[in-house]
Amino acid sequence: MPPTIYESFWQSLDGLPPAPIQGAYRTISSSADSTKAIDTPSAWLFQKFTDLTGIARAKLPSSPPKTGTLQDRMPQIEQTHFLNTEADVLRASFLYLLHPVHVAVSELLETGTLDCKGEQTATGGCRTDIRWVYRKGGQTTDIAVLELKNTNVIYWEDFKEAMVAPETAEKKRDSAYGRDNQTFFYGNAYWLSKQAKKYAENVDVEDVAIFDWGVMFIFDFSGMDEDKQYPTIPKGIWFEETSKSSDKGDTFRSLLFGFLIRALTRKNIPLSIQLPAV
Question: Is 161 helix (H, G, I), strand (E, B) or coil?
Fold first, then answer.
């Protein structure tokens, strides 16, 4: 029997079968002029994933509720899944990742509705895979963006050299100016960071997540300004599920739940203190 929506926040995503690949990971690039035109961030400031999973746990009841939508069952795992394309990851994500997060977030909203919109085009021809938009009456506010990728696209070796501590951000930024692309992001991370920054600028959001079923990387562009003397570079969270992290409630579902709560709070959307326990 599938877990309840509440229980799913303490469980890892199922290991759906991926298509085999050659080499360590899939390499990507971009043919979109809107992505190529974006200046790549020079680096990223390490942020703990528990900053977001902790937000999620604070909003979830401490014990399973006896009634309500959190006690509804998750979708049954289909045997038809085969993660061969980005579209396959998108389909599975809607069923097993986004569904419980949407149920929980909807319960938290005091007014209005959070819409999950796919394949939306913003200013400058910028098309997002998933964009969350808060709607109240005739007014809408863009909240956050999720970019889906095929499996084995988000690769640690491409991100690790760009990671920096706050006290060395200025030195790292200055060092990046002497590099070919003026960044320490490499390979796939070079294109992913450009794409994420494009969404932040064109959609006017600070919170952008990228997910390939095995890894989630979250960009936090709040206050970003790399041109000042003491630069503010984007923060980043690298997260992979493990059996140990899931037992603590550190899962993709909890991370994304916390990600959306933070994004809604930044846009001053009123939320309940906690989900109901009964």
Answer: helix
Task: Work out the angle at residue 242's Cα, subtended by the Cα atoms of residues 236 and 243, and round it to the nearest 5 degrees.
Answer: 150
In angstroms, the CA 253 to CA 66 distance is 21
Tokens at 101, concatenated: 């997060």
d(CA 151, CA 195): 17
- Lowest average pLDDT, out of 152-156, 176-180, 195-199, goes to 176-180
Give the residue among 49, 48, 144 at the shortest CA–CA distance from 105.
144
Q: What is the mean pLDDT of the chain?
A: 92
In this structure, what DSSP letter does residue 234 have? P
The C-alpha atoms of residue 157 and residue 27 are separated, in whole angstroms, by: 12
Q: Does the structure show a pLDDT above 80 at 97?
A: yes
Question: How far, CA to CA in Å, does 9 sit from each of 40, 98, 206, 260?
Answer: 34, 11, 24, 14
Give the type of residue at 62. Answer: S
Sheet harboring 235-239: ordered strands across?
113-122, 126-136, 139-148, 207-211, 216-220, 235-239, 44-46, 163-164
pLDDT of residue 123: 64
Average pLDDT over residues 63-81: 92
Side-chain-facing half-sphere of 55: CA atoms under 13 Å: 21
Q: Distance between CA 217 and CA 235 in Å, rounded?
A: 10
